[in-house]
Amino acid sequence: MEIIKSVKNSRVKTWQKLQTKKGRQASQTYLLDGWHLVQEAINHEGKLHALMGTAEQLAEHQEELPLGVPVFEITDEIAKKLSDLVTPQGIFAEVSLPTATREPQFIHDGAWLFLDGIQDPGNVGTMVRTADAAGFAGVVFGQGSVDPYSPKALRAMQGSQFHLVTTTGDLAKWTASFTQNGMNVYGTQLDPQAADVFTIPAQTQFALIMGNEGQGMQPELAGMTTQNLYIPITGQAESLNVAVAAGVAMFSLKAR
């Protein structure tokens, strides 16, 4: 086990770059911050490149660390450099990004969540975690959606990216492929033709599109769906947060 004490160490500088989308794309890896996320990667066969932790954290989790993965002991000062939290836990892992973009023509099974231009990383992470909880097969991040492997999004996911498929793609192609293969694709939009989500029978194979926080779905996608849906609001609020709305729709539509 190598011990690193300087924040200027080349490895530390490389790991710091994983806090940015550019750095993640260059290395095709991302950084997990905190034992729960590291443990999820270990337990669900995430491809780990390195484990980094303070002496205290490595000692605490010594028996749970996987064999064959390089382990680096770091200082509290380095831990603060690697985390965007004020008080980091002090244990990290460098993990591979998903290796390839999935093609829609090969996937026509289960329930899928399509994210169209979702901008807030907390919303993205929450929706992935909720899709996992609702028993969805996967999540497709469309053009304009925020990087789901940013630190804030990862904290909101809580490791759910290891439990279902996550991929990027052209949502128009995904929608067309699903509908051509007899699967319903539902959008969420307030328009005169939209149906109450609670009137739609629960099912096992379909896709649900959630649109941008402010603008909703792209008009092109809205015109391609099987049916657009709305969530009836009986109180005084004008609308729901997109992640909350996604949760309501996913649990309403997904047959158990």
Automatic annotation (TrEMBL):
<dbReference type="InterPro" id="IPR029026">
    <property type="entry name" value="tRNA_m1G_MTases_N"/>
</dbReference>
<dbReference type="GO" id="GO:0032259">
    <property type="term" value="P:methylation"/>
</dbReference>
<keyword id="KW-0808">Transferase</keyword>
<protein>
    <submittedName>
        <fullName>TrmH family RNA methyltransferase</fullName>
    </submittedName>
</protein>
<keyword id="KW-0489">Methyltransferase</keyword>
<dbReference type="InterPro" id="IPR029028">
    <property type="entry name" value="Alpha/beta_knot_MTases"/>
</dbReference>
<dbReference type="GO" id="GO:0008168">
    <property type="term" value="F:methyltransferase activity"/>
</dbReference>
<dbReference type="InterPro" id="IPR001537">
    <property type="entry name" value="SpoU_MeTrfase"/>
</dbReference>
<dbReference type="InterPro" id="IPR051259">
    <property type="entry name" value="rRNA_Methyltransferase"/>
</dbReference>
<comment type="similarity">
    <text>Belongs to the class IV-like SAM-binding methyltransferase superfamily. RNA methyltransferase TrmH family.</text>
</comment>
<dbReference type="InterPro" id="IPR053888">
    <property type="entry name" value="MRM3-like_sub_bind"/>
</dbReference>
<dbReference type="InterPro" id="IPR013123">
    <property type="entry name" value="SpoU_subst-bd"/>
</dbReference>
<feature type="domain" description="RNA 2-O ribose methyltransferase substrate binding">
    <location>
        <begin position="31"/>
        <end position="101"/>
    </location>
</feature>
<dbReference type="InterPro" id="IPR029064">
    <property type="entry name" value="Ribosomal_eL30-like_sf"/>
</dbReference>
<dbReference type="Pfam" id="PF00588">
    <property type="entry name" value="SpoU_methylase"/>
</dbReference>
<dbReference type="Pfam" id="PF22435">
    <property type="entry name" value="MRM3-like_sub_bind"/>
</dbReference>
